[in-house]
Amino acid sequence: MKSVFLMVLLGAFPAGAAETASPRVDFSSFTLTNGLRVILSRDASVPVVAMTMIVDVGGRQEARGRSGFAHLFEHMMFEGSKHIPKGGFDKMLETYGGDNNASTHEDFTFYYEEVPSNALPVALWLDADRVGALSVTHESVKNQIEVVKEEKRMRVDNEPYGPLLYVDMASHTFSNWQNSHPTIGSFEDLDAASLKNVRDFFEVYYSPDNIIMAIVGDIDPAKTKQLVTDYFGPIPAKPRPAAADTTEPAPDGERVIRMSDAHAKLPALAFTWKGCPQRGSEDYYAMLLLGKALFSGKSARLYQKLIKESQVAVSLDGGLGFPISDADEYKAPGAFGGFVVHKR
Fold first, then answer.
1. Which residues pair with 148 in a beta bridge?
2. Sign (positive/negative) of CA torsion 81, 154, 7, 281?
3. Which domains does the chain show, CATH number per domain?
4. pTM value?
C-alpha cells in the first residue's frame, strides 16, 4: 500500500475580460418552438453525418441525495423507448453501419451518432423517440443502477489512484457540494433511488429546451431542418427548477492531505488550485496555455524535467480543469490541477 498526497492550493486567480477571436466554421442555426436549439454545418467531403445532443444536465445540477442521476440517465437512454425495445437503438444504427456512444460530465451529458448520410432520418427518429417517450421501468432502473455500480467499482474503487482522481481531488478542492461530489455518484444514493425519483429527473431535465443538437456532414440544411422539426417539434417543453447554485466561497489557504491506496504500487502527488478564471476570459486562455506547456505530451516542461532529466517520476498529467473536467469543457468554478506518479 502506497501513500498518496493531495495538496490543495486555494489561491484566487485574477479574472480578465478581453475578447479573443476564434476560428469559424460555416454553419446555420435555428430554434424550434419548444426551445430545442439546433446547429447545422454542411461538409460533403464524405457521405457521412455526425449528430450530437448535449443535454444541459451533469453532476453539478444534481440534488443532494440524487448523486449519480445524470450518469444513470446516460445509461437509461439506451434501455428502450415507446417504439424501440431494449437494445434496439444500437441494433438499428448498426444495421445502417452507424456508431454511437454517450458520456456524462460535470455540466452536461453528451450523446452522439455517426451514420451514412442516407441514415440521418433514422438517427433523428431514434433520438426523438427516446427524448419524447423514454421507457423508464422498475426493471430497467434497477438493472442500470447495478451496471453503474459495477462501472464505479471497475473504474474508480479498484483502479490505482482512481478514488484520488475521481473523488478525493474534487471533494477536497471545492467546498460547495454541487462542485465537490463525484459525477458517478454514490452507492447509497443510487440504491435509494425510487422509480418516481428517476422519472422525475427525466421529466425535469430531458426537455427540448434543455438540449442543443448539432448535425454536421453530408446534409441538405433545408431538408435536415424539416426532419428535425417533424420529429422533435411535437415534443413539449417541460418546466425545470432554478439552476443549482455552484458558487464557491473564497479560497482559505493551503491544505495538505495524506491518503492511502491499496491498489497503488507507487507514491503519487496530486495538487489543485481553485479560483480559476471564467471561460473565455484573457486569464482563461493564459491558464489553458500554461497547462499545455507544463503537462501536454513528451515535450512538456514537467515531462522533460521530472521524467527525462531528473527521472524522479514515471508519469504525470494535469492542466486547466484537471481532473474534474477536460480543458475543452472547463467551466468556472473550476480548478487547475496536476498529478505525478513517483518512482519508488
1. none
2. negative
3. 2-17+246-342 (3.30.830.10), 28-232 (3.30.830.10)
4. 0.88
